[in-house]
Amino acid sequence: MSNMINITIDGKKVQVPAGSTILQAAQTVGIHIPTLCHLDLHDIKMVNQTASCRICVVEVEGRRNLAPACATPVAEGMVVHSNTLKVMEARRTVLELMLSDHPKDCLTCAKSGECELQDLAELFNIRNIRVSGTSMSTYKKDISPSIIRDMDKCIMCRRCETMCNQVQTVGALSAVNRGFDAVVATSFEAPLNETVCTYCGQCVQVCPVGALTEHDSTWEVVEALNDPDKIVVVQTAPAVRAALGEEFGLEPGSLVTGQMAAALRRLGFDYVFDTDFAADLTIMEEATELVDRLTRHLNGEDVPLPLLTSCCPAWVNFIESQYPELLDIPSSARSPQQMFGAIAKSYFAEKLGVRRDQMVVVSVMPCLAKKYEATKFEDDNNQDVDYSISTRELANLIKRMNMDLKELPEEDFDDPLGESSGAAVIFGKTGGVIEAALRTAYEWVTGETLENVEFEDIRSTSYGLKVAHIKVGDLTLNIGISSGLGNARALLEEIKAGNPNNLHAIEIMACPGGCVNGGGQPYAHGDMKKIQARQAALYREDCGKPIRKSHENPSIKKLYEEYLVKPNSEKAHHLLHTQYTAKERV
Amino acid sequence: MACNCCNGEDKEKYAELEAFIESLPTTKGELIRVLHRAQGIFGYLPREVQVYVAKKLNIPVSKVYGVVSFYSYFTMKPKGKYDISVCMGTACYVRGAERVLEALTKKLGIGTGETTMDGKFSLRSLRCVGACGLAPVVMIGDKVYGRVTPESIDDILNECE
What we know:
- Chain B: This is NAD(P)H-dependent oxidoreductase subunit E.
- Chain B: GO terms for molecular function: 2 iron, 2 sulfur cluster binding; metal ion binding; oxidoreductase activity.
- The structure holds two protein chains of two kinds.
- By secondary structure, chain A is an alpha/beta fold.
- Among the domains of chain A are: about 5-85, Ubiquitin-like (UB roll), CATH 3.10.20.740; about 290-330 and about 420-575, 3-Layer(aba) Sandwich (Fe-only Hydrogenase (Larger Subunit), Chain L, domain 3), CATH 3.40.950.10.
- A five-stranded mixed beta sheet of chain A has the order 2-1-7-5-6, sandwiched between helices.
- The longest helix of chain B is centred in the N-terminal third of the chain and has 16 residues, at about 10-25.
- Chain B has helices at about 10-25, 30-40, 45-55, 60-70, 90-95, 95-110, 155-160; strands at about 80-85, 115, 120-125, 140, 145.
- Chain B contains seven helices and five strands, in the order H-H-H-H-E-H-H-E-E-E-E-H.
- Chain B is α+β, with helices and mostly antiparallel strands.
């Protein structure tokens, strides 16, 4: 074939398509060239190819200087040596130069053990750093409720910038200044909370070092658990159970729902509940809103359509700062995390006969934006959700408690806020929220029983943008689904242009693939196969549930009977809904 | 879409910038050109102007700030009536430009990138201006002074009235 190129790497003959890099060619024959700045997430159309770190340099015969393998295209007849002494020496020098301007506080660094720079220092057996000089370790630490930016640790790989701009199209980060002062920063180097940052945390997912990390709340949680005067309640989001096992050496896609409940109980939580319960509650409120808007629309009323889902806090941050003119279309329903907090500190606290300030609600989320979201809802200076910790933080807590998740028995969640349907568990995957809403809306609109609850057309997408047409009785609903904020932007632009596809409802999740790939999940290092395995796990859990429709959840029915009266009632509105405000951000 | 916070004079400047942006066949890839013009109109590029440019060009503010902070030509601080640039290119540097800059810093009481309190002088350094034969070179506005020494700066500054 004419578009194939033949090269030799370390004596091995390789044939690769024209345009491939030396790095890609080497990978096809099992030669592992170390990289640091490079990141290829081709499944979500992100390739970070800044060639700025120079760890991947190789010798190319006939070329005077060393070539970065990640950014050098192959040429016919090229002879490459990736493992010469000259290459080894060069990589050592490059590493030492980077380390000479890197803080040496690995002992207390949040990324220790997961740091790609640390891994390289170990691989190259760096014991002393022969170069020294001015260090730029003076950049102020930027602490937001969700993400901590410690730019002294930045190695200028610019993965975060690529993710923020190209995949998410948020535009919060850019390389600023030049030369020694160059740094990846926000507009005017403002703190994150003054910028368009949505706290989606995808930058944290790709940062190779400790420059971008989550705002850890585990010690606060431990203190609450240690306080005998507090009743500590925990809720876990759907996506957590499909990924937590990875932190304990289990295969991606292993479901650890039962072991996770057992671990939480052993950590000392008084009640181990499930955000899935609140996901069912979300469907009750959101599907009511959808059916209401559709009915009025069909009666010729001027109602805002399409209805946008509002479970994802990063997505809410995105629309509030980037599309203030569209704030009338999202559902007013709060996210499951917040519905849970509001119900726990009212309905459940009343059942127990305790004041809301005697109760501490902790959420375990696959998400970093949830940490910020938790700060938004409070009553009497007491947050509905006191602490939100990530899947990674929970894994660390379990390990800290000297437990191995794999060895724990499978236990159930507590009642009543632990009961959930299969519809709730798929909230963690792109398409899941809208499928769950359709299972309920279908039955409400048609008055018939929905026999096949799996909407294959919706399920077929694991990442990206999708339009599906779903028959609901005589109606055909046009559904938009997008994951990744870049795809969300495309849908919003379509709505701004007059909604030419006549979409009735849109589900948006900020992270590529949905919450299973959230900013707080175990580091997937860009491996979309892991993400797909987590997605499949959620469908498996749904499939195994005796109840698969939110409105059939007995504990939800009871909650309405005893407390909320009906969806969208005054009480429901007060506790479960919210308003959106335009945010001027840079 | 001019901002509400500015006075009449600013309004005119924003209108001029807006007219320039709208005269472009496309705004794609024109950020640097627009910033050039904006600095020409406003004299410098304050935060508000950068936010305005980002909105008009439909690009993130962070990208605008990234470019403004990268190029030494762009400034976020207002320049003085007399904008003094000291060439720090190789030829000027080896012939003592650093000492000239030091003397100017001392004399004016400001660092590079700063403006005197009375708004009369601003000081910055730049790379080669292409007059290496006259090194070291100092520019005030468009006027070029050659073979400058720390001792001759008084005479040059006295010309600025």
